[in-house]
Design brief:
Length: about 375
């Protein structure tokens, strides 16, 4: 048996271990126990040039079916009508607070700074975060996310979906979002939470203050969500919420270049993850890359084709056994048939993003 075939077998073992043992933790997870209490909640939204999105989306959040909540909006150095839009909403809603951080010669926006100021102004212990371009999937969004807070659970990870539109790019964006959530929910399930998404995340004010907020990664432009979770998340204090009523939905990018720019910014934070997370995520990505590359090479070279095909089929059987229930939970099951092609395309694009970021770091959040 050749070295390449032996290496391919090892890669298959690693892939099956991730899909069959780790990621299946979320795929087959049962709903976590929820509290019947409805604590006061502060909803925080940092905004920069979001006047149009606020006009369209904020009324939906204000109409949430929840008895006790306030909304804090931060205008983070906007150059459009964001602040005046906020003022108009504030006139009609007593539970709405607004903060303006002016744009100056030395300040051009910083989301972590905006969020920190919002938290300082929050009246309530339980904080729920989203973005101006997001809307709740249902008017039970606050209820579902808040129900996962307990005495011990101070951090709640939610799912930030993207709207389903036509086209291959839309499928790719939703697949990447689904795949990422599949991973971070699974890691949280086994007690190793490593990230969340700012479009839908909640934590307590006490936890933020105890961990000194974003102080440990303040110099990194992005990471108000994933780096904070990586910093403070533990087996005991983290819950995850995957009920469809808890989802938020955003409009996806409509061009590949815009989406790649967004992902370039997101991926820069991975170097600041804890070593164990960098190792686990790195091994998984390398195994994906080797699986695709070795499968292609071995089939082209006609090396032990029968053995290689059996291994490929076995890998995909385990993959789909775990992927299908995860996609159903997150209401993305229309992607199942496209998954092998989307996975291949995503691996290639991630390699491109990684190489590009070696030469030039994105600067905007």
């Amino acid at each position: 048996m050749s070295f390449l075939v032996c290496l391919f077998i090892l890669v298959i073992v690693v892939q099956i271990s991730y899909y069959g043992l780790l990621f299946s933790q979320f795929s087959f997870a049962k709903e976590e126990t929820k509290s019947n209490e409805k604590p006061f909640v502060s909803i925080l939204i940092a905004c920069r040039n979001e006047a149009k999105n606020l006009q369209k989306n904020l009324p939906i959040i204000l109409d949430s079916d929840y008895p006790n909540f306030e909304i804090i909006l931060v205008d983070d150095a906007s150059s459009d009508d964001t602040f005046s839009c906020m003022q108009d909403f504030q006139k009609e809603n007593k539970n709405l607070k607004i903060i303006q951080i002016p744009k100056t010669a030395t300040y051009n926006g910083n989301k972590k700074n905006a969020i920190t100021q919002a938290i300082a102004q929050a009246e309530h212990e339980h904080l729920l975060f989203t973005d101006a371009d997001c809307i709740p999937q249902s008017n039970s969004w606050i209820s579902e996310m808040a129900a996962h807070f307990t005495t011990n659970k101070q951090l709640v990870l939610g799912y930030g979906a993207y709207k389903k539109n036509r086209g291959w790019l839309n499928k790719l964006i939703r697949f990447e979002t689904l795949f990422t959530a599949w991973q971070y929910f699974s890691y949280a399930k086994v007690g190793k939470p490593y990230m969340g998404v700012g479009r839908n995340i909640a934590y307590t004010k006490s936890l933020f203050e105890k961990e000194k907020g974003f102080e440990s990664h303040q110099t990194i432009r992005s990471g108000d969500d994933d780096l904070f979770v990586n910093q403070v998340g533990t087996k005991d204090n983290t819950a995850f919420c995957w009920q469809s009523e808890s989802f938020t939905v955003s409009e996806p990018k409509t061009s590949l270049s815009a989406w790649l720019k967004q992902k370039r910014r997101h991926i820069t934070t991975a170097n600041s993850y804890k070593s164990i997370h960098q190792l686990l995520l790195g091994v998984f990505y390398i195994s994906q890359l080797l699986f695709m590359g070795l499968a292609f090479v071995l089939l082209i070279l006609n090396y032990e084709v029968k053995t290689v095909l059996i291994l490929i089929v076995l890998r995909y059987i385990i993959y789909f056994i775990s992927f299908i229930p995860a996609s159903k939970k997150l209401k993305e099951n229309d992607l199942v048939l496209w998954a092998p092609f989307l996975e291949l395309f995503l691996i290639v694009l991630q390699m491109r993003i990684f190489i590009t970021n070696l030469w030039e770091k994105p600067k905007e959040w």
